[in-house]
Structure formats: C-alpha cells, structure tokens
Design brief:
By secondary structure, the chain is α/β, with parallel strands linked by helices. It contains 14 helices and 20 strands. An 11-stranded mixed sheet has the order 12-11-10-13-20-19-14-15-18-16-17, with helices on both faces. A 5-stranded antiparallel sheet has the order 2-6-7-8-4, covered by helices on one side. Strand 11, helix 6 and strand 12 form a beta-alpha-beta unit. Helix 7 runs parallel beside helix 8.
Length: 463
C-alpha cells in the first residue's frame, strides 16, 4: 500500500520544494461549497446559468488556498504540520477546466521555535500566476509514516455528469448540420449557439429573422458565423425545416421556441414529412444524480395511448438509441402499476406480449422484463421483498411507460423532485429530431445535441 511520510524540522533544507497539479471541475466547486458554506452564485452556479458565457464563471480563489494547505499538510513538511500564518495574493481567476500547478518552497528556518517559512505559488496551464504568497508553519519534530488512506466519495454528486460524458464521446465527430426551428427566445438560441461552440452542431437558424436577431442582440450573441433562413412565423419555419431535412440540406432538426405539436405536424405529414416504416417515438435521456446508471423514459411526449404494435417500435427505437450511446445490451423495464399479468390492466398484458416478442426475435438487442412496477425496476431490495427474480429488476436502463400521461408525470417528477436533467430526442424519423422542453436549461439542450450527433453518426457507421 502507498505510504505518506513527513519531513521533520531537522530534515527540511532551505530550497526544499514540493508540488501538485489539479484540474478544476464542477465537483470541486460543489464540494468546496458544501464544506465551506460559500454558495455565492458567482462561485457555484455554472450549471444553471443561461448566458452563453456561462462556461467562463470562475471558481473561488480560496480553492487555490486550500490546495496550498493540502500540499503543506501532506508533503512539505507533511503529517504533524501546524499552520501558523499565511499571506496570499489572488492575481487571476481559476475557470472550470483550468489545470493549476501548486509549488511550495522553503525559504527560511527558525531553530528557536521550529517554524518554517515557505514561498507559495500557483500557476495555470498557460504558466500565468494565479496565486502568490508565503506561509509560515510549525514543522513536526517526530518522523511519521503511515499508509495513505483513500478518501471516501464526498459532497453532492456532480449534476450533468452523464451529459458531459456524452459530449466527450462526440470528440472527433463531424458536427451535425442542424436546422434550429424558430429560435426566437434566449433559451433556445443560446442552447443552439453553445452546442455549436462545443462542436456538436452547425446550426441553421430557421424562423423570423428580425426576431432571431433581436434575441441575439439582447443575449450578446454574434450571429455572423451562422446561416439564417427567414420565414414569416413558426408554422412556416417547421414546414421549411422539415423540407430541408427531407432534401438532405440538413442532417437533423432541433426544436426552438414553438410547441411540439406544431413541429411534429410538419414532421408526420404523409406526403412531405419525415416518416419511415418505424413508428416515431420520443425518449427522455435523463441524468438523475441519484441513479447509478443511464436512464431513459419512453414514450412521454408523442404517442398518447400506444397500441401493442406501437410499443414494439417504441421499445426498439429506445434500444437502438442505447446502442448508439455505447450501451450494448440495455435492460428494459415494461412499467405498470403491478408486477403480475392482470386482464383488467392492459399495460400488464402488453408487457407480457412484448417479452414474448423479444423471445421470438421481434424485438432485439436488449433484455426485457415486465410488467414491473417502478419500485421493482429501480430497487433490488423492493424486487426481493416481493419475490421478483429478474435480470432487469433494480438494474433497468430503459423505462417503457404505459401511455403519455404516466410518462410525462414520471419524467416531470424526476426533474422537479430528484433534481434530474432532461435531454430529449425523437426517433424513427428520417433524421434525428432534437426535441426538448421550452423550460429546459442549456445543459439539457447540449445533452440532447450530443445524443443527436452520436445517433446520426452511429446510423452512418451501421450502414
């Protein structure tokens, strides 16, 4: 096992030094806020910022001071060190993703009281000074050597970590040429421009040009790099965007500030829409901080009361999406109010039939089970209490709801009671349709764009 060992006062030499390197993440900020009680929005609120410049929000300078303390307490002098005094100057902010190098160097020793004076410096990845100063400590006089203890996972679970993972998966992929339909409010326009900045999409802004430019001016967004295709109103924007996707001018659609049914009317139009042989369905790709695996809910947005045949396509669409996102064999929970097949509850009959269809190869690429109540799908303990033996119980990735009412309520409960983020996409059309709620924040929109890009490139690879 790795050991941690101090330097006694007698062992310390003038000129001795130690260093460490750290990269600032959302998790560091959240944990520092939890421990210190400092929850100033300027320090911790990057997740909920709707400004296009949210990624520039800075971390508290005291995080750097804490790193200096860590170095003094674990390396030089190390175990047994008592902090006596410090004087630090904070010269520049530390931003999310910045990598800092911390160096402490002994400049003086005081034999009368075992005090050691150290010069402290922190620089960022560009070599720019972030913090400078001095620290005075009382060095240990006894040698201590102990096994290094791994710290437990502390603090709030990092929100949006699964979307960050999906965004990372898109690196090296060609951005998705995307018609952004009617982006005439700040939320939808900022989301599209941020997705472009991250290399997820190349936005083509389809809608009333004057309104789009007004929103851009109010949000301080430069639209010069992006194409605007002018239309008179939202309905015309939806029709034109669908036509562009149908003719191959764009590779995907992204919903802006218009109602879902207005966009989908153009998408499902018999002669001019984007239908395929597969039933279209919607999937919420949910980042639930308390759930230990990816979580998908379908269908909570398009199909109101799906038939058994509809559900077959809904399930297969979700399975195909999971494959595109790197989940080779997702576990599908077919939800109902009870876990027994009951003739009076149609969703239990559908669940049993879908499981049999999977056995006969009509649904492929996943493990299905149902009917399962929600508690049995998410909790091994709940399933065991009811005597349910299932490879899906307590380990589900995909949750297939009985109808749109149940799905919508489940998704909204997770969002507002479990602090979940909700990315959304429509499947079964000729192109991915990035379909988010008008209330969704930027992070969810970025997650949706990453999903659309991964899905589109996976389709090409599969062909």
């Amino acid at each position: 096992m790795d050991r941690i060992e101090n330097l006694t006062f007698d062992e310390i030499k003038i000129g001795s030094s130690a260093r460490l390197t750290r990269t600032l993440s959302h998790k560091d900020i959240s944990l520092f806020a939890t421990m210190s009680g400092d929850v100033s929005p300027a320090h911790v609120d990057a997740e909920c910022a709707e400004d296009a410049r949210f990624h520039k929000i800075i971390a508290h300078g005291m995080w750097g001071g804490a790193l200096i303390s860590t170095l003094l307490g674990t390396q030089l002098p190390g175990l047994g060190t008592i902090y006596f005094d410090q004087s630090l100057k904070f010269l520049a902010p530390v931003g999310l993703g910045d990598t800092v190098t911390v160096v402490v160097k002994v400049v003086d020793k005081m034999v009368t009281n075992q005090h050691v004076l150290l010069e402290c410096a922190i620089t960022n990845q560009r070599g720019e000074p972030v913090i400078t100063g001095r620290a005075e400590v009382i060095a240990p006089i006894e040698k201590v050597s102990r096994p290094r203890v791994l710290l437990p996972e502390l603090g709030p679970i990092e929100k949006g970590r699964r979307y960050q993972h999906l965004i990372a998966m898109t690196r090296g992929l060609q951005p998705l040429l995307t018609a952004v339909v009617h982006p005439v409010d700040a939320v939808s326009l900022v989301g599209a421009i941020e997705a472009a900045r991250l290399g997820l999409i190349i936005p083509v802004l389809v809608g009333p040009e004057a309104k789009i430019r007004l929103v851009a001016q109010q949000a301080d967004i430069d639209l010069s790099p992006y194409e605007i295709v002018a239309t008179e109103h939202s309905e015309a924007a939806a029709i034109l965007a669908v036509a562009m996707a149908r003719s191959g001018q764009v590779e995907a659609l992204m919903k802006g500030a218009l109602h879902t049914d207005e966009l989908m009317r153009a998408v499902v139009a018999p002669e001019t829409g984007l239908r395929t042989s597969r039933r279209m369905s919607h999937v919420f790709a949910i980042d639930a901080p308390g759930y230990p695996r990816p979580l998908f809910i379908t269908d909570a947005a398009l199909n109101i009361y799906p038939t058994l045949e509809d559900k077959r396509d809904i399930v297969q669409n979700a399975i195909d999406l999971a494959h595109a996102l790197g989940i080779p064999q997702p576990r599908v929970a077919l939800l109902s109010a009870v876990e027994t097949v009951t003739s009076s509850i149609k969703s239990t009959l559908d669940a049993a039939a879908l499981c049999k269809m999977a056995e006969r190869g009509q649904i492929t690429g996943a493990i299905l089970d149902g009917p399962l109540a929600f508690d049995n799908a998410v909790s091994v303990e709940a399933a065991a209490t009811k005597g349910i033996v299932s490879p899906v119980a307590g380990a589900a990735n995909i949750f297939v709801v009985p109808d749109i009412e149940a799905g919508n309520m489940l998704a909204k409960q997770l969002e507002y009671l479990a602090d979940a983020e909700m990315a959304g996409i429509v499947l079964g059309a000729r192109v991915p349709i990035i379909l988010t709620s008008r209330a969704d924040k930027t992070l969810a929109r970025l997650g949706s764009c990453a999903i659309g890009l991964l899905l589109a490139r996976h389709r090409v690879k599969a062909v």
